[in-house]
Amino acid sequence: MTHATVEIEQAGGVATIWMNRPELHNAFNPQLIDDLTTAFLELSGDPAARVVVLAGRGKSFSSGADLNWMKEAGEQDFDANFADAHRLAEMLRLLADLPKPTIARVHGAALGGGMGLAAACDICIAADNASFTISEVRFGLIPATISPYVVRAIGARQALRYFQTGERITAHRARELGLVHETVEIEHLDDKVAKIAHSLSKGAPRALAAAKALVDYVDGRPIREKLVEETARRIALARAGDEAREGLAAFAEKRPPGWSR
Predict the structure, then answer these.
(1) What is the pLDDT of residue 69?
(2) Given phi > 0 = left and psi -120 to 50 = alpha, else beta, which region is 58?
C-alpha cells in the first residue's frame, strides 16, 4: 500500500510503515499526519499484519514537526489551530492504542514529534547513530501532544529536565532513560528489528492485544482489591478462550499453535 507520504510493506506477518519524506527528514505536515492516521487504521483491522514496524526513509527517522507548517498553523484562529493540533494528537493515540505489537525502527534524528512516535510504539530499537531531542521550548512551543508517551517512557522526573533543556539525547542515553529498549550498530538494525518481530509473532493475536491493554490498565494503579479482582477477571477470560485452548493443546502435543503457522 502506498500513500502520498507513506509506504507500507508487508511480509511474513510484519507490516512496515515507511515515512517517506526523506528530503525533509520525514518532518510532520498535514499530509504525513493524515497518511499515518490512515495507515494505522488500515493495519488495525488487517489480520495479516501481526506486527507493525514504524520506520523512516532517508537519513532520519523523523525530524518532528515541519516548522513552516507550525508557523502557518499558529497564524490561524484558535479553533482552526486546535483542530490542526488535535489531528496530530489523535494520530499518536491511534499508534499507541494499535491492537498489535508496534516497533519503532529509529536511525538518525528523532526530534520532537519523531521522539513522540518512538515513545508511542511498544518497543523502540535504535541504531547507535540515533539521537533524540525535545527542543520545542527553543521555538517558543511545548511538547504537548507527545508528552503522554514520552513521560510514560522516561518518567516525569527526567521529562522535567529534557522538556526544558532541549538537550540532545544519544541513543545510549535514551536506552538508559527507558525510551529505547536496545541499541545496535546501524548495519544490524534491520536484523534486530526482524528478530524482535519474529518473537512477537509467536504470541496469540488476541492475547498480544490483551497483554498490551493490561499494561495500560495496571500502570499507576494502587495494588488494592479492585486491581486484584480485575486482573483475576482478565486471566479467567483468557483461560476460557479459544487461544488458550489452542496454545495449551499445542504445547502438550509438541506442535506450533495455529496462529504461528
Answers:
(1) 83
(2) left
187 has catalytic annotation: no
At 187, the amino acid letter reads: E
Helix axes 205-218, 242-252, angle to 10 degrees: 120
Q: What is the pLDDT of residue 3?
A: 80
H or E element at residue 131: strand 131-133
What does the alpha-carbon distance between residue 100 and residue 52 come to, in Å, rounded to a whole number?
A: 7
Edge-first strand listing for the sheet containing 102-106: 6-11, 14-19, 51-56, 102-106, 123-127, 182-184
* pLDDT above 80 (res 253): yes
- C-alpha 1/C-alpha 144 separation (Å) is 31
Contact (Cβ atoms closer than 8 angstroms) between residue 182 and residue 149? no
Q: Which three cell numbers, joined as nine digits, stand for 94? A: 491511534
Tell me the Cα Rg of the chain. 19
Mean pLDDT of 243-255: 95
Residues 54-87 have pLDDT tens digits of 999 999 999 998 888 888 888 889 999 999 999 9
Give first-to-last CA distance, the chain, whole Å: 24
Distances (CA, A) of 171 to 99, 184, 233: 27, 9, 39
Active-site entry in 7, 9, 75, 136: 136
